Amino acid sequence: MASLICGSLAFDNIMTFSGRFADQIMPDQIHILNVSFLVPTLRRDFGGCAGNIAYALHLLGGQALPMAVVGHDGDGYVAHFKQLGIDTRFIKKLDDHYTAQCMITTDMDNNQITAFHPGAMMQAHENIITKDCGAAIGIVAPDGRDAMLQHAEQLHAADIPFVFDPGQGLPMFDGDDLRHFISLATWVTVNDYEGKMLSERTGLSFAAISTQVQGLMVTLGAEGCDLWENGERTHVPGIQAAAVVDPTGCGDAWRGGLLWGLEQGRPLRTCVELGNRMGALKIAARGPQNYQLDFDPATV
């Protein structure tokens, strides 16, 4: 069973600030903010939501079908996936754009400041989903606005059950858009901040949203995840990480675990537990695609 992963491929430029943002930003001077952070370390990693989710799902033994767009500088990313054995048939290249670029600065408290250049991602709607794409399940993750809207419609039209996970793309949509996404989706996932925004914009409580889909999952970082089904909440505790090194890509690792469980037909709570375990595994490694599996997913 294959999972179609609609989202971004990006290069992550990850920097570490050896202090705390809170010590450098004066709240009463936000209106004239002008700060600079010395970042002694810099690394460039393969990233983007679709890429990171595909990597996590592949580690677990799932069949990932990332659907995304890269620019003229994206050949190395495609080669990276081919070397891993990840199917690249739905990765489109545009020669007149850069691949999406993410600049992430993390402080000593694991707070992050991110700048994102979408580049080729803004043309992701040029990828079209059809019934014969070979996927039994899908996810609409952060991507270009038009792509997210159209891919949700196309997955629904193709009778492919899918997860709607707007992530950092959620602010692009108003209440009508978000209610429409929910009406099309099979499952919805958000973190706690995004969940509050989703509820506020749609006017729907978590309980109400969960009655319209097979499950709403609200991730809570190290605290785990709240799973809402048919208006009822179940808390799924987090997994203790071996170390807290880098939060970049933890949400995507969680999504990969969720998708693998759904691929396997596991109960939704077990899918969430897999997601929690993958997030804890990822946070102990630097970069979003540099960790390795240290457990047998079949035992979860």
How is this fold's topology laid out?
Layout: E1 2-6, E2 10-16, H1 21-24, E3 41-47, H2 49-59, E4 63-70, H3 75-84, E5 91-93, E6 100-106, E7 112-117, E8 137-140, H4 145-157, E9 162-164, H5 175-184, E10 187-191, H6 192-202, H7 206-210, E11 215-219, E12 224-229, E13 232-237, H8 250-263, H9 268-283
Parallel strand pairs: 1-4, 1-8, 2-6, 4-5, 8-9, 9-10, 10-11
Antiparallel strand pairs: 2-3, 6-7, 11-12, 12-13
For the record, give the distance between the C-alpha atoms at the N and C termini, rounded to a whole number: 19 Å
Strand content of the residues, in percent? 15-25%
Ranges where pLDDT stays below 50 over 5 or more residues in a row are none
Fraction in helix: 25-40%
**Strand count, sense and closure of the main sheet?**
9 strands, mixed
**Element-level helix/strand string:** EEHEHEHEEEEHEHEHHEEEHH
Strand order of the largest sheet: 5-4-1-8-9-10-11-12-13
Mean pLDDT: 95
- By secondary-structure content and strand pairing, the structural class works out as alpha/beta
GO molecular function: kinase activity
Pfam family, one: PfkB
Protein name: Carbohydrate kinase family protein
Keywords: Kinase, Transferase
